[in-house]
Please model this.
Amino acid sequence: MNLWRIPLSEWETGHGEPELVKKLDYGGFSYDNSVTVTGDFGDITASDDGTADHVIWHKQPNGGVLLWGVGGGGDTTPQLWQDLRTGGWSYANSRPLAADVTGDGWDDLVVVHRNGSYDNIWIFPSDGHRLGAPQFWQYMFEESGSHLTMGDLDGDGVSELITSRGADFMGTTMSYSAYRLANRGGAYYYGNAVFQPVGGGGWSINGSRQLAGDVTGDGRADLVTVHAQPNGGILVWVHESCSTGSSLCLADPEIWQDLRTGGWSFAGSRQQLADSDGDGTEDLISIHSQSWNPGILVWRHLSVGGEFTDPGIIADLRTGGWTYSASREGVAHTYGTM
Ligand SMILES: [Ca+2]
Ligand SMILES: [Ca+2]
Ligand SMILES: [Ca+2]
Ligand SMILES: [Ca+2]
Model:
């Protein structure tokens, strides 16, 4: 597999142009047997230029995991950070996420590890150069099919874990929860959670995906839900964060973009959030498949006061060997920027 980066900010050199970070055609690296997570994990090498770091969470023949780190800049040789082939680690039962949960400005790795009917939450903290040994922070009781995303809902510099789940016994079609993660010595913790039911109206966990980022510019991450529509196309909803110091809160959803026409496809697209025009609000980035062409178009939808602007193409990857179905993406801040 190959690792690439595409600068999404129009202020960055090479905006919209793919740059090869590392060709991993050796050592047993396998696209199908790994998860790649992007973030700003630290100055990984002496020549790290602050561009996106990659973590490769890689399945091992015995079902365990090796954790590799790849820095930005001149030396992008993968570094083995953790050997998790023993100790009960399971690639199949784990979901890795990147976010700063320690508040030092460096992204950490958060791994939600299924253990029977509940999840263990493990943190691999960054020390500014690498990810350290896993720390068991707390339990979580969630359905195994819940969607997970990280975002700093209250703007205190520490990201929360946001879960989205389907129908429950209360008759809710979909609902969200948020957890402040902390090292509680393994104690089950549910305080400070926000429950935002989304009843009726055709909401579907399987027909939606969630992103967290500050699309309003107030410093608090909002929840963006991209939702499939029955007659094709997509609606983009925003639950603005109304969190205050002590409590987490998500406001009722508002439609920020109607993409039910124009050939937009939920199944044929993936989304990210990134500030593409440098105004301090996160913008929607769409990675879209092309009919009759295996390639990709990358669009940006700028956040402007309560809506996203009409999407514009920032990278045309319909030529050059790009394949929508054989690629995946993440977004990372470059070092020194928020
Ligand atoms: Ca951190
Ligand atoms: Ca927070
Ligand atoms: Ca916000
Ligand atoms: Ca923006």
Q: What stands out?
A: The chain has a mean pLDDT of 93.
